[in-house]
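dumping these here so i dont lose them again. two proteins, back to back, each one seq then structure tokens. dont judge the mess
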Amino acid sequence: MKHLLNEFKGLYEGKLRHLGNKDESKDTLKMKVTILQSYVNDLGDQNEALIQMIEELEKLANEKISNLDNRLQKADQLLNEQKLKWELSKEETDRLRRENLNVKIDLHTLVGAIQQSETNEKFDDCAAKYKSNSIYKFADNITKVGWILNNDEK
């Protein structure tokens, strides 16, 4: 592009040099003025073309910025959704860990009760305190098998 502009400039400078070698008559001066006016007009046309190109580039840049902004907003929304899912998952994991710990404690308590029943020759699961909400009651003298909820054996 710069090469083309230099050729354009050189063309007008050549015309003016060619006229500069002639005498400074009225006709020569008129021709110089005409050449300079053409040069100015061509420069004006070039400036308009450059302005139009700059406006088109600016429009494209604004479209790309808008597109990137939309994509960034979607990514931000997705990130927030994933963060919420992660937090919920973490809460569920923590709850399950606590529940697992309670079950392990209940299992340990139950194993202890069974071991003690071997010594006493009588199984007493009611003496043990369990962490979980429900415990399976083993058969005793009254053959009753079922879930005990909130220490209610009915």
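---- next one ----
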Amino acid sequence: KLLYKKRSQLKEKPKNVTLRFEVSSQLIEALKEVSDLGLSVELLEELEANLTQLSSSALKLDDLNVEAPLPHSVSIAEKYLLKNPNVLSRHYQLLDLYVRSSQFSKSLSLIKQTLSVANSDLYFTKAVEKHYQNADYDSAKDLYLRAIKLNPRHSYALTNLGTIIYYVNGEVDEAIDYFNKAIDCDFDREISVARYHLGYIMEMEKKDTESAKMRYSEALEIDPEDWLSHTHLGSLVLSMDLEKAHYHYSKAVVLRPDEVLTQYNIAMTYSKKGFLDKSVHHLQKAIELEPENPYTHNLLGNIYLNHSMFSEAISSYHKSIEIASQLDDSDFDINPTLNNLILTLRRASYRYLSVRENIQIAASYLAEAVGLSPDQNSNFFDRCNIGYCYMLLDDAKQAEQWFREATETGSKELVEAFQKVKEDEGWSKEVTDQLQIHTQITRSDNPRDRSRAHFNAAFCTFHMGQLSQTLYHLQRAIEDPMVTSDYSSSNYLVEDAKDSGCL
């Protein structure tokens, strides 16, 4: 109604110059109302036609004697608009100053520019609705392109179009171009999301970690509460600066405590810093948020294992493997979890055997390790130890069965040597006895058995204070590249020594 009222007044072509000035001022107010109300583009185009008619008038509106603000007010407003021509409020401010200072030719020229920005915003608003509410990406893309055509410096439209180009269409280089344009047009440095997305592409697609860190840092300068930039920046610096990674993860978990990822990350750094209770607390929060996530259960198992809490680790690994096996489209790699489970089962059983407690549980753990091992020919020592468990349990039949299976993967002489030491000496001279067995097994033809025997011999010599022999056996243990992955975490040797009070 306001628009048509002003149009009718304009068509009357008043001869009175003061009235002409009043009508033009009201037209500017109409423009504000139309833009703010988000009316149709057609109405805005109609208003533009009326303004064109006004500009062709023979009246010299600039000659009006109207009280004007100080000239420097206009100059400042022009500088503000030049700095960021995308802000409609700055257009309106300068339009008002032009009219009040009788600079009508400038005001009419500026109104055309203002209309382009206003029309562009209308297209942008419709595009956002299609993009985020309706997931109609093709329509949204077309509307963003129209908005950019009217206002090539519309940084928000450039940013959102970039997200569709990359995340929907998978076009990396084209998306980078749009995000860079958005950043170049972000005159007030207020769009953090364009910098985040560009950092993400640099990290994930281009593998340019330095550029990624720079963009994430820029995003956080603009928006310190950008939890995604905190998260990714923390991950990029984790291997080099644990404290800095922990800082960013701490910020992210405060900003988004309901995200599994933030709880997972802070639990990981707390674990690396040695805070068991805090790391477990945050992982349990993550599990509450998403109980069927194999990653969280796996990390919980790793944390328990690092603190030699074997039964808790075994339970967490079991849960992780159970969940992963039920997921059809999961990219979770089950093999590292399986290897850690086998390692934990062995370590737990050796601890029980070292104190001759829970022997039945030790036997069951070793039997599970044998069953889970992908290479059944490399379980000679596990089978021997199961046989020994049943010797301690006075179950000769079961002991004989496991020793017989051991002879299928190792030599009969080695099995007999193992049995002889255990039968004659018992477990009272545990470390010396084990070293004798492991030394014999190091002569096995099976490289995996040799490697495992050297590793266990290193453990024994470490307990006996023979550090040069410990180093020798560890070096021999990792000579075979096929088995290096089994023993690369030789820090477990030190952890076991701590458990036994022998460090």
